Each structure stands twice: as C-alpha cells, then as structure tokens.
Amino acid sequence: MTVNDSAVGEEDWRRATDLIRAAGTTALACHVSPDGDALGSMLGLGLALARAGKKVVASFGDRVFTVPRLLRFLPGQDLLVEPSAYPAEPDLMITFDASTMERLGLLAPHAGKARELVVIDHHVSNTRFGTVHLVDPSAASTTMVVERLIDRLGLRADRDVATCLYAGLVTDTGSFRHSITTPAAHAMAGRLLATGIHPEEIARELWDRSPFAYLRVLGTALGRATLEPDAAGGLGLVWTFVSRADRAAEGLPYDEVEGVIDVVRRVDEAEVAVVLKEDDEGGWNVSVRSKGAVDVARACAALGGGGHPRAAGFSSATSVADTMAALRPLLTDPPTSHWTSP
Ligand code: AMP
Ligand code: MN
Ligand code: MN
C-alpha cells in the first residue's frame, strides 16, 4: 500500500484504470497558473502513459500560455499543447489539482464537453465535477494520488516520472514542513528517491534560484509590509503587495514573485500572512497563509477563490486597499475539525 486511498472508492479506481486503458488519446489538464503539484501531477502521469505507448496531450487554460520559469526543469514538457490546439470534445479528459471546473480556465468548456472526465485532486473542497473522482483529501499532494494510479495501471515510475511526482510532493508539503507531512508522504519520497532523482537539483530549481531583480522587488515588497496586531481576531495579520510597476522597474516577470509569501509568512506576530501580486494585465492574485488557527480556505472561498485551510488564494479586480478591506473581516473563522485533519 503506497497511499491511504480509502477516500477513493474501489469502483472509481476501477473505472479510471479501465477508461485510461481503453482510451485512444487521453487529454490532460491542470489548474491555471500551474504550481509544482499541478504541473508535476499532470506531466508525471502523462509521461508514464506516453512511455507505455499511449497517446497523450496536456495543457492548462491560461490566456498567456507559458510554463512558469521555475517549473521548466520538469521532464515531459513536449507533451504540452496550447489551449487552442486542445481537443474540443475529448473522449477522455483527466484534470489535476483543480478543485472546481472554473480552475481549468480556458479548458473548462472542454471539460464540460468531455465524454468521460476523471478528476484527480486532494482539495477537501473539491466539487466533484467529473464522471469519475480520484479525490483524496488525506493525500499531501495530487502527485500522491497519481503515484497510486500509476501503480494500479501497472506502469512504472522511472526517474523522469519520479522527478515530476517529487516536485508536487515537495511543493505542497513545503519541503516536508507543513502539517500535511505524513508518514505516507515521507514513504513516497523514499520510493521516488530510490529511482535516482536528484532532490538537491529539484529544490534548487523550485526555490533556491532567481534573477538579481528578484532581490530588488522583494526588498520593495518587504519595505512596505504592514503588521496589524489586532486583525485576524486579535491573532495578527501581516501583509504586503507587489505591483506590476514594481516588477517593471526591475524587469521581473510575474512568475518570479511566487516565493514572496514564504518570507512574509514567517512573522511571529501574525497568524495570517497575505501577499497581493499584480499580473501583467492589472489583475491581482492574492496568496493567503495561516498557521492553523484561522481557516483561510473558507475566507478565500467567500471571495471566489479557494485552497487549503492553511494555504489558499483568490483573484481580485479591485484595488489593494479594497481587496484587503474585503478580506480582513473574513480572517476570523477557526478551522472545523474536518478541515484541520488532512
Ligand atoms: P498560491 O498562494 O497561489 O500558492 O495558492 C495557494 C493555494 O490556494 C493553491 O494551492 C490553491 O489550492 C489555492 N488557490 C489559489 N488561488 C486560487 C483561486 N483563484 N481559486 C481557487 N483556489 C486558489
Ligand atoms: Mn495547486
Ligand atoms: Mn496540490
């Protein structure tokens, strides 16, 4: 037993493996603005299928289709096609790390028209929008569910597949630091390492490199960080923002600022940390983190986003001040026992 897959019914496992075995072309899609778990789970399964001789296409539904710089080291990128080249009505489509159909962005209509839609995810908030659901909220990452599926298909996780799966595992456990770091997560890491992957290279690609411009923009963002001790029900809030003007001044692409939240969230005086990031079109993507006493997934869901109890996000089309004014009063919900357990 590799993963506690009790959350997924035997019937769903059987239907998923039957559909994949019978499929001509399998169309894979992960959530927009993919992170290591989204892209890692999709390319990991994609590569395993391709190596077994299956036809695979993979994509994600961003308006501007580019793989974030820090994920370009992932093997299997040759499976990727632009959303415009994606099958309009796939016979079999599989989604990765997306809790709702909307998270598929431009590919949501394709999912709506797919004959069979296998949803692979680990968000407790997953809306079960497919025809088959491999959704396990006890899994630390979507790649953990994918590892189980590869195993049940009788396929092998070679070093490239393992690199993809490991990238998702370390992304979503925060390098085995978050509360979701279960014995099963470490056991999976052990199996993946045994294939000969290089954890130091993966970690360096994901977190330990950036252009010099990042230091300048990080400095600007940290210089304006605000601590509000009375916010979040008196537990404290720390927040800042990175505007597109900040990035333009240093020539820094949007996908380089994902790590700012990991500096901001370390503040002892704040239970909740928030970083607002403006994209090139002027929209704001908001990263929200808690230390466990406030359910930020529910707060973000109330603003049209979602995520996990301690790591969530949403998009906003209004100003920084208005976005914070909408978020602040929502940062008081303690997690229910159901939300804290996975
Ligand atoms: P991020 O702050 O972008 O790293 O996002 C943290 C987590 O929040 C992700 O893993 C997703 O589960 C979730 N999330 C972020 N943005 C959204 C969104 N717009 N809608 C739904 N979930 C989101
Ligand atoms: Mn994700
Ligand atoms: Mn995930």
Written overview of the protein:
The chain is an alpha/beta fold and 342 residues long. It has 2 domains: 10-207, Alpha-Beta Complex (inorganic pyrophosphatase (n-terminal core)), CATH 3.90.1640.10; 212-330, Diaminopimelate Epimerase, Chain A, domain 1. It has 13 helices and 11 strands. A 6-stranded mixed sheet has the order 6-7-8-9-11-10. Strands 2-1-3-4-5 form a 5-stranded parallel sheet. Helix 3 (108-113) links the parallel strand 3 and strand 4. Helix 2 (36-51) runs antiparallel to helix 5 (159-172), helix 4 (142-152) runs antiparallel to helix 5 and helix 5 (159-172) packs antiparallel against helix 6 (183-193). The model is unreliable at 337-342 (pLDDT under 50). The structure holds adenosine monophosphate and manganese (II) ion (2 copies). The site of adenosine monophosphate has 12 residues, from strand 10 and strand 11.
Supply the key terms:
342 residues, alpha/beta, inorganic pyrophosphatase (n-terminal core), six-stranded mixed beta sheet, 13 helices, 17% strand, globular, binds adenosine monophosphate, binds manganese (II) ion
Fold topology:
Layout: H1 10-22, E1 25-30, H2 36-51, E2 55-60, E3 92-96, H3 108-113, E4 116-121, E5 132-135, H4 142-152, H5 159-172, H6 183-193, H7 199-207, H8 212-223, E6 226-228, E7 237-242, H9 244-250, H10 260-264, E8 272-278, E9 284-290, H11 296-301, E10 306-308, E11 311-316, H12 320-327, H13 337-340
Parallel strand pairs: 1-2, 1-3, 3-4, 4-5, 7-8
Antiparallel strand pairs: 6-7, 8-9, 9-11, 10-11
Helix pairs in contact: 2-4, 2-5, 4-5, 5-6, 5-7
The site of one manganese (II) ion has 5 residues, from α2.
